[in-house]
Amino acid sequence: MSNMVIPLLRNEIAKAVRTKLPYFGFLVISILCVLIFIVTGSILDSENLNAWGYTSLSMQLIFTDIGLIFIAVFASMLIAEETAFGTARVVLSCPVLRWEFYAAKVLTGLLYAAAMSVISLIVSTCLGSWNYEFGDVADSMGMIYSNKEVLVNFLMAFFLSWIPLAALVMYGIFISTIVRRSGQAVAVTIGTIYLIDFTKHIVGIDSYIFTKYIGFSWQVFNQVTQGVDYQWRPQVWYMIAMSLVYCFVLFAAGLAIFSRRDING
Amino acid sequence: MSINNDAALRLDDMCKSYGRIRAVDHLSLEVLAGEMAGFLGPNGAGKSTTLYMTSRLVHPTGGEIEIFGRNVWSDFKSAIQYVGTMVETPSFYEYLSARKNLELMGRLRGDVSDSEISENLERIGLSDRQNDKVSTYSHGMKQRLGLGMTLLGRPRLLVLDEPTNGMDPEGTREILSFLQEKVRDEGLTVFISSHLLYEVEEYCDRVFVINHGRLISSGKVQEILAPHENVVLVSFGGKLPDTGALIKEEGIEHIENLPGGVFEITLANRDSAWLNDFLLKRDYKVSSLTPRRKTLKEFFLSITGGKE
Asked: How many contacts (CB atoms, under 8 Å) link A and B?
């Protein structure tokens, strides 16, 4: 029997394009890009702000707040909604293994996170190029970082930002597995993320929480765009390691729970 | 339990416990290929749990399940490939059309063609509404669509949990007749659970009766679900009987006047042939005389010896 992950993923995409939530997410982040564009122009030193600077600020702000919420909401509904409405039992009555179903959900969540990231990047760069210039980072003394160097750092920031977002997707799907109602799953996911975010400094576990790293790569890139010394290492290794550990643990735990669960009622 | 190679579905010593509650208790049965078998039991008897286990949706506490000789736990995909399952209320992506729902499920059943989906929609009588969102469908239409989903990919075995639940009598008859036809003409095997005695009685070849998770009776429908021998429904063409006088006759235990001019006569150690003869001798014009079917409760009492 052939692997069912791809057919399941095609089904997930077919369903997602017919629901409103993904489009609403895209709309909201696009509006946010515009708002950030307006605000940066009026409160920051627009003389020295270039398109890179605006883009990095826009991406950082989007994914430490609204973008994060939409990805978490989308991911935490993926399995809970199927369980609540009984469609999980219809799908799993077909020749579909539990891990295939779970893997397709994970891929869907990751695709949505990637789509959010790409769309906010497109809107940000379009707005950035409209009012500013993508060029060398320079000050009155001359060029600090060449356009090529900035572009390399930009691409690094963009792709590295997906790693903690992947952990966020895994977290949402994990909650979606253990909470059977989609509304409750969303509330638990968002509630726990904010609860941990508010308390992690007090408890001293800041470095061990993946949400800390969601805006990290854009913070570093922001330093590049401002022409100051930037440093990827060693923090980037912590970010990659910590996010991947979360991804692996949450995926394994969620899959183990889902595989052992009775899908009835 | 001996292995029968003709078995479409074989449950061997199935058990399922929820904490201290035993939902299914050492249940063994075999549904033969090409038959329509009923699975009868009151609400909470363990029917749905058993059906959930056949498609691996519920993990059994013990026992084995084989579909056409393939173990559901060790060889799931091969075993389930030709099985259409509908357990409890059929569920759909309500924001999608019936056609889209079938397309999505068809993809999981090995790329079911567009023409098969169209044929399926025609067969379940939803081709006119195929592009409407399922959320706009009535309960009966959803039941039909659920059945349509189970028929995708040309299954050899259908496992259906109360498929006519909430449907009107006409729709019920239509669906069950359709299934009966598929069994007769195409050799499909149907295992259908119900808490309605007459459904099983009219359409199934064999019946398995379950209560408290245990199989309490099985066999041919005519043998297991035989109607009452001593409770007869009689309607009269001419004069109506004087019930006060009849009750005094030896052999008649009780008479009840039912709506529609029908009398339910309970006989004492006599049968319907005796009653027919008895009434004719007294110049009553009998227009119909039929042994009354047992209610589910009566049926259970008769096979459990009065113990619930």
From this structure: 79
- Hey, is the C-beta of B85 within 8 angstroms of any chain A C-beta? yes
Amino acid at A28: V
In a domain, B298, yes or no: no
CA of B236 vs chain A CAs: smallest distance (Å): 49
**DSSP-based three-state secondary structure for B184:** helix
Same structural domain, B59 and B208: yes
Best interface-test mutation with A: which of B17, B75, B83, B93 has the largest number of A CBs within 10 A? B93
B-chain residues within 8 Å CB-CB of A264?
48-49, 52, 57-58, 87-88
Reported confidence tier of residue B1, pLDDT bands at 50, 70, 90:
very low
ipTM for this prediction: 0.89
Q: Last residue of a domain, which of B219, B248, B280?
A: B219
pLDDT tens per residue across span B106-124: 999 987 999 999 999 998 8
pLDDT digits (tens, 9 = 90+) for B175-197: 899 999 999 999 999 999 987 77
Residue B263 lies in a domain: yes
Q: Which of A172, A169, A65 is nearest to A114 (CA)?
A: A169
Note the pTM of the prediction, 2 decimals.
0.88
- Residue ranges per structural domain of chain A: 5-260
What one-character-per-residue DSSP string does B185-223 give?
HH--EEEEEES-HHHHHHH-SEEEEEETTEEEEEEEHHH
Residue B254 distance to chain A (closest CA, Å): 44
Helix, strand, or coil here: A261? coil
A85 has a chain B CB within 8 A of its CB? yes
Mean pLDDT of chain B: 88
